Amino acid sequence: MLYPPESRIMLAIDCCIFGFDGENLKILLIKRNFEPEKGKWSLMGGFMRTNEDLENGAKRILNELTGLDNVYMEQLFSYGNVDRDPVERTVSICFFALININDHDHELAKSKNGYWFSMKEMPELIFDHGEMVGKALQQIQYKAALHPIGFELLPEKFTIPQLQKLYEAIYDTPLDRRNFSRKILSTGLLKDTGEKNENSSTKKAILYSLEKDKYEKQFNAFHYFMSMK
Amino acid sequence: MLYPPESRIMLAIDCCIFGFDGENLKILLIKRNFEPEKGKWSLMGGFMRTNEDLENGAKRILNELTGLDNVYMEQLFSYGNVDRDPVERTVSICFFALININDHDHELAKSKNGYWFSMKEMPELIFDHGEMVGKALQQIQYKAALHPIGFELLPEKFTIPQLQKLYEAIYDTPLDRRNFSRKILSTGLLKDTGEKNENSSTKKAILYSLEKDKYEKQFNAFHYFMSMK
DNA sequence: TCAAAAGTGTTCAAGCTACACCCATGA
DNA sequence: TCATGGGTGTAGCTTGAACACTTTTGA
What we know:
2 copies of one chain form a homodimer.
Chain A: E1 8-20, E2 25-31, E3 41-42, E4 44-47, H1 54-66, E5 72-79, E6 90-98, H2 106-111, E7 114-118, H3 129-146, H4 160-171, H5 177-186, E8 190-196, E9 206-210, H6 212-218
Parallel strand pairs in A: 1-6
Antiparallel strand pairs in A: 1-2, 1-4, 2-3, 2-7, 5-6, 8-9
Chain A binds a DNA duplex (27 and 27 nucleotides) through helix 5.
């Protein structure tokens, strides 16, 4: 038995892929060499397959561009205005991913015409992809204020100043070093690795790693990383 | 030009409809008199039409059960596990609505086999509808902590004790009357109507209405209605 | 006049904000 | 030895939590 065919609709997945280069929050976009809107910028996307769950579809598409697995991904929102796609009525389920910008397969991304943009220098995107990115950024701001998702964008070992720069990039606002440090350390999520950041030309900052146990346990607890006024 | 037919998929909408009766947060469910899962409880739902935007589809479905228009609705999440629907692979976009429980068309709801349940007495639901309700409740808890959505569940004129009962129902926790009152009034969103609640058998509480201007302006500002520990 | 619900004020503790000094490093 | 960036401490203020008394009303 099947349902009547009245609402079989093209179903797509689009993926906002965010990274952080130490200074700026960045997004991975592709220059389309296929129709429609060939030559313009868009999110990485693709059609949902009939035999895969939504999350698997999103993972597949992320993997096609970055080569990555095991990445933090969240379903964001579904877009389905009747005329959003000029070819045919298509509903797109948008996901966002937070990746460590150094981890992905650069060659693969290049072969798919993928380029990183700072959020502030993002070009115009096709269809409603600009709206998707706006919503993704807003969602990251919400979530990062309460939950420790920022770490997903950093390498395994990171310094507090790096983390602070990330938060400053996410909220596009300067933060006080001393208060930030105290707040982050008070969560108990950070473990001093005993190592220091050798890349610095001044005082070397302490490298921390995540307390995995606490991280997983407390992930859904509230932390108030930002005061969201 | 059309896309290849590889991923045309049945697209449904399901709707979590919440109300508040003065004591309990409630949800409107239907007892299915149609297949599949005839006789079991589910959310109100339907298939997306090819010629309507997602929000319009959700509004249509809400209206079919309640007769209401102009209701607070939010897209929640999309569900698309391959085998979630036994009939055929179907992706469902879930919305939630907050309505004033007295405003809707009781006869219409009855004619569709709609019944209200307290959240705590909710029966088992078909498919992944239980998961949907859980996520909707969580989203309401998040949102109501920061944004003034609670008012959508109350009549136009309401008292502070009523509002407190609503928050207590949403978070399933008792709140301190004095602190709650001070906090809510400090937002400046409430306007003393000069009237009092005549339904009370003891001291009559002041009826407030929303400061519409401030409400709309501040809707996306953060308020910290709840301390989310 | 009593019970029940509503309105209001105060005190204390915790947390946030703002700010200053010292240390380590490489040039 | 100097400039730069990193680590830490403190004082004041704001906010939230805890708590008690008074008022209104109908029975």
